[in-house]
Design goal:
Layout: H1 2-17, H2 19-38, E1 48-54, H3 59-69, E2 74-78, H4 83-91, E3 97-101, H5 105-110, E4 118-121, H6 126-155, H7 177-209, H8 217-245, H9 254-276, H10 283-299, H11 311-317, H12 321-334, H13 343-364
Parallel strand pairs: 1-2, 1-3
Antiparallel strand pairs: 3-4
Length: 378
Amino acid sequence: MSGVWASLRQTLLAVLLDRYAIVVMVGAVILYSFFYPAAYRHQVAGNLPILVVDEDHSATSRELLRKLDALRVARVVGQPADIDSARRQLEAGDAEGIVLIPANLERDILRGHPAKLVLLGNGAYLGRASWVLGSVADALGSFGREAAVTQAAFMGAPQAPPVNLVQRPLFNTHEGYGSAIVPGVAELIVHQTLLMGIGVLLGGRRLALGRRLRFDLPTLAGMALGFGLIGLFGLFYYAGFTAWVQDYPRGGNPLGQLLGGTLFIAATVAFGLFVGSFFRTRERAFQYIIATSIPLFFLAGLSWPTVMTPQPLVWLAQLLPTTSGINLMVRLTQMDADLADVSRELVTLGVLLVLYGALAFWRLHGPSIRDPGRTRTE
């Protein structure tokens, strides 16, 4: 055990004394905790452009136009003469939505006939389109209730609807984009910075020694423990302090987070040691992270449905600690899931820990040997 603790101390000291490693594994985690969520602090998109095609030109249509222009999410940037002109501007990216006010809107309302409004959105950016369409729909609903009062003055009071729909979000209470995305990205940040730090240290040491790295079992175990402690610091820093400061959903299942988070970090460390054993220079770690961050997030299924992902990529995603780790932590942190609800992710991470742990042991354990003539295969 003394060898393990000595290796642990040496690993932590190596991280502290290596400026690249300390910046990546600690500095970047803290920096991103303030920098990344800042873009989503309002939780919703705002001031998005919409077009209004007014074919009625009545006092009622002008009142509706004023309601639309008063929305915080959207602003009216133009009133094209017809729907074809508006559609061309939408396709050119000049607006996120179109509201068509048909002719005879006011007449239909006063006569007690159902009035129809047309709402079109740009689906190229799903988040923006959702907020534009939803907010404009709310404004149209408010306008419709006022129109019902006007109708009642001419036709008599309408009968109250028998059922009222009340929508209350259970987990993402703000229904915000930030609450849906940032907690998942936080796990990816911890994973990628941890892998980068491991790669920087292993690649730098291999470059300095000029040979393939080899460690005895106590040294290897102490290294893994040291990297794991740093990873756990980052993971629970995001799940606790950052979620509290940025006011994202938090709490959930603390004991489950401790177990699941530890397993996620352990699998990540094993994966990092295996991948890092191939790096001959520290720069390779940066290249790896830059190339894989976005694909890893999409493969996790948090922002893109798994059912719409090609099956080979779904299988590949199961070999990555981020896929199970991100979903595991989001459910335990935000949705108060119990261990039975995330049993599949826990089992997957356990299998990955054994798999990559064995591969890292194969790559890094053993007596020190030089490897001339084996450069191409290692």
